[in-house]
Each structure stands twice: as C-alpha cells, then as structure tokens.
Predict the structure.
Amino acid sequence: MASVGKTFTALVAAVLLFIFMLSGLSGRATAVQDGFDLLVENVKNGNKEERIAAIEKLAGMKDERSLTVLINEFNELYEDWRIRIRALDALAASGKSMVTVALVNGSYDSCPAIKWHAVAGLGGYANEKSIHALIDALDDSTMYIRETAIESLGRIRAREAVPYLGNALHDRNFAVRLKATVALGRIGDEQALLLLKWETQNEKDLFIKDEAAYILKK
C-alpha cells in the first residue's frame, strides 16, 4: 500500500507541475499579446516619438500581423510624412512579398521623399508589380528618383526593363546615364550589351564611355 501511496503522490506532483508549467506558458503568451497590443495602441494613438518607436519594434518582428499593422500605418495620411517613411522602410526591410503593394503605392505618392524610399525599397522585390512601378519611375521629373529607380532595376536584374534603361542613356543628367550604364552591365543580357556597345560609340562624356567599355571587357 505504501508503494501505491508513493506512486499516487508522485503522480499528483507531476500533474501539478504540468499545470504550473502550462500556467507559466499561458502567462508568457498573455504578456506577449499584451506587449503587441500596446505597440499597436502606440502606433495608432501615440505621439510622434511613440509611433516611431513602436514602428521600429514591430519591424523587428517581421511576422504577418506586425506587417499588417505597418501597412495600415503607411496608408494613413499623416501630416508628418516621416512617420509614413519609417513604416515604409520597415516594410521594405521585411523581405516579405505581402508588402509589395504598399511599396508600389508608395512609388506613386505625391510626396517625393516617400516616393524615393518606396522606389529604393522595391529594389528588393523582383516581381512584375515592382518592375512595372520602377519602369514608371524612370519618367519621374525628379532626378534622384530616376537614379534610384535605375539602381533598383539593376539590383533585381530586370531584363524587362532593358529597353527603358536604354532610353535612360539619353537622359540629360550625367548621373542618370552613368547609373543606367552600370545597371545594364549588371543585367548583362544580349540586348543590354548591345546598348553598352552603342554607348561606347555615341556617349559624349568620356567617363561614362570608359565605364561602358570597361563593363564590356569584363
């Protein structure tokens, strides 16, 4: 009987320990959820500093629920565009395909700073929507947005963009033509190489001409 009693006591102790562990896990899960809810609350209703701090913490999570909050945050038209840019940069850094639509929308934003960050971010997403938005950005009136669009297209080696990068070789701005040269070199398909060869014969700037020749020799 003593043996049975000891076994029963051990069993009860094991059950109590299991319940205690479950309680601890539940408590931690609740704490995590409470922490997430607080971040969401700060994003929605905090002051500028609280919003930015919460955005940066959510960015580190990189899961679907945090990215959804950031997408919604970017879509809010705050007077302070810096909050939207923080959300946009966090989305771009996530590497998740679900953020592409927000980045594409940002590339058409009326704020040049937001547009630039979106165009830069799209350089990490080689898909049809991204490439189409970046090609559109090549016609932007702002030089640094055109430059960044070219860099992004080169980074993702977008062959579909080669004819449009060829058009950029005629841009009035030196930096745009140079970046288009480098992007064509990164893509490196037959059409891109033909455009570089054309450039060695027709580009007036010696530095760009030499860059095109160097790429062809590699």
Remarks:
- Confidence is low (pLDDT under 50) at residues 22-34.
- Residues 97-218 form a domain with the Leucine-rich Repeat Variant fold (CATH 1.25.10.10).
- The chain has two domains: 1-94, 97-218.
